[in-house]
Amino acid sequence: MDLKRLKYFCVIFEQGTISQAARILNMAQPPLSKRIQELEEELNVALFLRHGRRLEPTESGYHLYKNACAILRDVEETKREIILIANRESRLLRIGLTHLFQSYFKPLILRLHEHNPHVEISVSVSDSSNLESLLQNGLIDIALIQKPAHKEGYDCISFAPISLVAVINKQLSPEIPCSPIPFLTIGKFPLVLLRRSRDAGTYELITDHFRKGGVNPNIIMNISQPGVILDWLESGLEAAALLPSSEVDPAKLANCHVVEILSSPQIFFPAVVKMSVASYMKEMMDIVQAGYPFPAKPIDFSGKA
Question: 3-class DSSP state for residue 181?
């Protein structure tokens, strides 16, 4: 059984259409359809039922997917081990890190380097949607991102959700707001919200919670990086932001209030994510399983050092 056909089959299974799978695999649709047809002929079974452009896996298709993931994962792990044995000095760990949780995951990456000083670590920093694409295309091995909304094709290790805080420029509200401040009250401020480059994410979750509470939020800007939002608020942008508490240090914000949220929805879900067909990065998993996240110092909402 051809490994490349198995990989193509898994991507089609996960994406649900030939066209979307072809885009992920960066190949034309006709040869991709042909490879799946050849696989079905080899096995003498139908792997998908066709409903227009959508492909619905048959019972045989579900069984093959489960086993194909295990086979491809074993192949990847074997390749990784052979490369490591052949040339330990050139070992490369390719990690994707979302802007959303740079501070949250920093201790994990630093500990990874501390435990593996002779290993090169390549870190690609982007938003979660771009990092999901890098995972799918095999350009990174593991991603430290917001837990994917659609988990097909992924394996995830999820951590406890990170609480939401409001960061409010002092020119907008010179007096310290009551703390904690009701979530819906924040919707009346001019807001700068986090937003990924494509697909739904935390932006849609936050705005949906506002609208369910009867508030039409006053959004003036959306930005993909918490650090940029904090810099602009601190530089005088008269607005408020809702950010993961892990990314906010009140002691560094002289011109902003940092306020806890009352009745805060759970929005931010950090996770270690890999493709189902790939093996977990043992060096990182050893740290996670030993107890990550490490104990953190509580946030001082008074803003005092």
Answer: strand
